[in-house]
Amino acid sequence: MGPATSRSAAWLRKTLPFLKAVTIGLKKSAGCGDRLGLATPGHVRAIRKTGVAPIFAQQSVRENERTGRTPSQVMDDALWGVFQEGWRHGFGADADHLKTADQADAFAAAGYTFFTIDPGEYVDNDAEKLSARELEQKVGELPWAELESSPSDLEHTLSEKPVDLGDFRSRFTREELMRAAVKYGKAVSHTVRLYRHLVQTMSGRLFELEMSVDETESATKLVEHVYIASELKRLGVVWVSLAPRYVGAFEKGVDYIGDLEQFQRAFARHVAVAKTYGPYKLSIHSGSDKFSIYPIAARLAGDLIHLKTAGTSYLEALRTIARCNPKLFRDILRFAEGRYPIDRATYHVSAETSRIPDAGKLDDQDLPELLEDFHAREILHVTYGSVLNQDRLRAPFFDTLRRNEEEYTQAVEAHFDRHLNPFK
Ligand code: ZN
Q1: How close is the Cα of 253 to the center of ligand 1, in Å?
Q2: What distance in angstroms lies between residue 328's CA and the mean position of ligand 1's atoms?
Q3: Rounded CA gap, 15 and 10, in Å?
Q4: Which of 77, 176, 210, 251 is catalytic?
Q5: How far is the centre of ligand 1, averaged over its atoms, from the C-alpha of 97 (Å)?
Q6: What pLDDT shows up at residue 216?
Q7: CB-side neighbour CA atoms (13 Å) of 15
Q8: What class has domain 6-124+177-312?
Q9: What pTM does this model have?
């Protein structure tokens, strides 16, 4: 017997090898982000019923900033959940949305095995609108030395002959290709830089890499995906998954918004690129609650899929609070409505506070239904940091979940069954 401290966790990790994060390679996988440090038991119970490899420790730099947690705390919380549920089949740990080498180092020191590089700040979202003259100027300004290439090299590799993508061939004009290079060239070069840094930092320890450009303004086109993959490969990057920005809207905590036929067509093409230049997995970011696209993704990608979820276990915590402590839930909702105009800024969401059903008119037992409402879900989803940083809410929040641990675990399990069943 001993206290559940970080020292105990370190000792357990040394003694019981299945408590140490590992790499999971090309197995189909799911990222089970947990902003509270209490959701892993529910994740384990759902994962156990599938053949999906789990990532139980997964938080982005932004999430840790908002919840005031460190990479080590997130890792320890996942460990306690894994230990409690007796999961012995291994799990990964994802340092999500890394932007700098310093951030990568902090996660590496805490034993993370999966690094998601987000070069979003280096993506030139204006590339599509440039005139021919502006385009040529921007092509000239790309970091060709760092890319160890030249415009004519690039043209020679990808636009002089059709590109063979297995199921089909595609021909890109010089202009299409150069627009792709202008949009993503600096992002590729930043990814290469961070990858090489990680190779040094990890000095022989196994790790895997994901590149994510899911938070760009416009959808990643076929030519752009080909450009990114072909360039990363040429520059010696080894990666296990890539998150394009898919067509349609992937708003937080709600289902896919867009045309499913169009998604299916575009996704099939992304799969072809991933098989040609990898194989690597297609990662679906903001993957929570996108129930209408799961069957399509599972069918087209097979095992080459990584489903990344983050805030949805937080919403299940709120469902549990709505059931077990309605007064607290009402307080949280009121506070979240006030914070939403500020907190929404860094997220893709379209909810409006004026369209949430009036909680004042609902009986306590009907409050959990608010977790089915589009507007309430998004508003509650993006305000988690503010809620958890509010002293008068934070203590009763965790207290309610600890006192109703089994209820929360079952809610998370049921919710993740719905996410994982299509990928079983
Ligand atoms: Zn993401």
Answers
A1: 13
A2: 30
A3: 9
A4: 210
A5: 7
A6: 85
A7: 8
A8: alpha beta
A9: 0.96
Domain ranges for the chain: 6-124+177-312, 314-417
Which residues make up the environment of ion ligand 1, defined by Cβ < 5 Å?
214, 285
Gap from CA of 259 to ligand 1 centroid (Å)? 21
- Give distance in angstroms: CA of 364 to centre of ligand 1: 35
Q: Which of 34, 76, 94, 96 is catalytic?
A: 96
Does the annotation mark 96 as catalytic? yes
Q: Is 118 a catalytic residue?
A: no
Q: Check residue 110 and give its pLDDT.
A: 97
Q: Which residues in the chain show pLDDT less than 50? A: none
What is the C-alpha separation between 123 and 127, in angstroms, rounded?
Answer: 9
